[in-house]
Amino acid sequence: MFDVRIDSGDLFRECMDQTLIDYRERVTGEGEPIAATHTMDHSLGDIFRVQLRSVAAVVYMAIRAGAVFYHFAPWGVTYRMKDVEGVPYDVIGVLIKDALKYGMLAWWYKSRDVALFQFYTREYDKTIADIHGKITGSYALRPYRLY
Asked: What is the pTM of this model?
């Protein structure tokens, strides 16, 4: 078994940066930058952590075939994972971090930008499917009898 630890402050900063990238070039019809109203800022850290608790639980339920348990702490989230033969620990860790990031960005854009909400929801679903595929495997050996 191994632990995957995600620092909530690092994840929050990464999500803030991503929202700035998403809106860097966009402006309203009046030429005002959308970034002022549609991007995350440091004052939203508490709201982010509250929502992260929910998203972390949903991620755990989606990957529970390979996760023993998860723990949400003030500093972040820890997932205790089963060993997966042939898959390095850091690959699973990065995928779990990406799933949390995409889940948080989908939450953020849900009431702000439908296109970005749909994009990050698809990315979240693909990442969860990728984790699940690595944990459970995608094929099985079937014995055949030859007469």
From this structure: 0.84
